[in-house]
Backbone:
């Protein structure tokens, strides 16, 4: 197909470009795919009409399995001005599709140009985004390095999350956190966390602890903030048990001992256990065999039948 595309003398219209790239969504990186992308980049540049919203969403969505290459970057470079020139408002589906398609595009000048073009289009979207749109959009940002362009996209998405119709489903939550897990701390990222937390907490579909642990651990390694703690508290309220029993148990994904959960009160973190009550003192790690945790006048202490009691948490043997 690549030479046939190059030989085509008729200028491609926006719909042709959207359809052509959309059809590549299952194509893994190969010499043949790169040849097609190189040919398409030329045709995108030659396209004289503005691309419509659906064509933009379809075109970028088709890149979802394309590994970073000069040919992918050429397509991104050709698409960026077409996005800017689009006078039609992008709807929720187009936004979700467009950003989702960027999931394997490595950080580059060309990728940042697309992000810069997308940010105002997200702001201008008047259609409320649903959970799937948000999950797809954030998932597509997983390869993006910290930049002014990425922060502009995050700033644009945050109010759309607040306006989201309904809570986020389990898959939406997992995809959103996967997309954000390598993002550097910034005011824009915190705004996204602030918007996500209540949408996560409102959901009734149980979350899977094992699938979320890696994403959350990566986020926690990049620093602590009230906004991130809000995400942790919201997640813990929806974590499902993973032993196959179908029961929903109170679990912690923040490296807390079994039964303990983390919560926020007026911006301050406290810890709660159904048997031992609540406390401000952080709970970390798990207890060594034989040790149990108790409270005395609101203060936590630890007891072992052979070693007695102590105020400090015992070290693992």
Residues:
């Amino acid at each position: 197909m690549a030479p046939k595309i190059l030989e085509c003398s008729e200028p491609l219209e926006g719909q042709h470009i959207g359809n052509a790239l959309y059809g590549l969504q299952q194509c893994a990186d190969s010499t043949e795919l790169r040849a097609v992308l190189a040919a398409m980049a030329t045709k995108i540049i030659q396209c004289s009409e503005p691309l419509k919203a659906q064509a933009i969403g379809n075109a970028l969505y088709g890149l979802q399995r394309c590994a970073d290459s000069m040919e992918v970057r050429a397509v991104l470079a050709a698409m960026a001005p077409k996005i800017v020139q689009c006078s039609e408002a992008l709807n929720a589906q187009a936004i979700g599709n467009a950003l989702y398609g960027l999931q394997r595009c490595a950080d580059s000048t060309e990728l940042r140009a697309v992000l810069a073009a997308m940010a105002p289009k997200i702001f201008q979207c008047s259609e409320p985004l649903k959970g799937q749109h948000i999950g797809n959009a954030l998932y597509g940002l997983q390869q993006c390095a910290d930049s002014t362009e990425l922060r502009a996209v995050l700033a644009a998405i945050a109010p759309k999350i607040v306006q989201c119709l309904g809570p986020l489903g389990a898959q939406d939550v997992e995809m959103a956190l996967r997309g954000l897990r390598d993002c550097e701390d910034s005011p824009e990222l915190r705004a996204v966390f602030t918007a996500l937390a209540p949408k996560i907490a409102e959901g009734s579909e149980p979350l899977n602890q094992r699938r979320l642990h890696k994403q959350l651990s990566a986020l926690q390694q990049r620093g602590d903030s009230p906004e991130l703690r809000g995400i942790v508290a919201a997640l813990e309220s929806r974590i499902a048990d993973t032993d196959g029993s179908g029961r929903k148990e109170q679990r912690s994904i923040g490296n807390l001992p079994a039964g303990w959960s983390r919560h926020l009160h007026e911006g301050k973190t406290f810890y709660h256990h159904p048997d031992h009550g609540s406390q401000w003192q952080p709970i970390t790690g798990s207890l060594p065999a034989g040790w149990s945790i108790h409270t005395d006048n609101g203060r936590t202490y630890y007891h072992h039948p052979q070693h007695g009691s102590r105020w400090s948490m015992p070290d693992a043997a």
